[in-house]
Amino acid sequence: MALIYSRLVLTTFFWAMMFHLAKYVVAFMSPLAIGGWRFLAAALILVPLVYWREGIDLAGLRRNLVPLLAMAAIGICGFNIALFYGLHSTSPVNGALITALCPALTVLLSALLNREPVSRRQMAGLGLGLAGVVTVISHGSVAALLALSFTPGDALVFCAALAMAVYSTIPRRFITGLAPLQVSAMTISFGGLLMSGVAQIVSPDFYTLPPHSVVAAIAAMSVLGTVLAYMWWNDGVARIGAARAAIFMNLIPIFTVLIGIALGQAVSGAQLAGTALVIGGVLYASSWPAAKPLAPALACPAS
Known about the structure:
The protein is mainly alpha-helical and 303 residues long. The protein has helices at 2-25, 31-54, 58-63, 65-88, 92-99, 102-113, 120-138, 142-146, 152-174, 180-202, 212-240, 242-247, 251-262, 269-286, 296-299.
């Protein structure tokens, strides 16, 4: 179990790193071109790896083709398009705040669709994590939160958070008899094909060769933020459930801030307090799997 939790933590770190890498490469390429090449490169790495380790389960892929395509369209293509274009017309503070809703959305969807029990301990951990995220991005200022204004980009970022929540809840309910590594390889491959197809239509720079530093950044996004991250995330969801895995997503804005500090940004007391709340929430929610369900109706909704 410690290995699963460690991988989920590293996954959130890699995804936090993506914000900083994307901030750099978006100055040279359009978001769709970046996403298309990122996932195509990841597929070229992951598919041969899966073939070498366990072969390609063609029967399982045919049996689960529809949910796999849904995961690729919603959780990879849809998530990345909505997030990147949403951030074009909203502030980073708003984007971080809205993305922080993803764990709560995942817990809710898991309870409704997958009948995963939601314990008081999980809800408390989720609340602590959300409080920590809000503390970090608002710098501990209530006035900063009250002063937020919302734009159409906020709606796109919310759609991105909802897309990731849907992506995390699909496997347990709709994927049958297919290993997590196979799920990761196929969703990334299908998502890469979808994103690159859209990019070729609407992004004139898809075939433009960027500087070497941008190529290196996209390679890091492919290997760390895609291949390893999605492998470990899908494996974690399969082993501990989407609701518990979602708690770890609260670490993404925290790691984003910490990476910024490592790059020279100053640290504030609010950031330290928020980080402590998020880490405490993750540890509290994941340390006792046998917690009593919050309510039978929420744990086992009617079909």
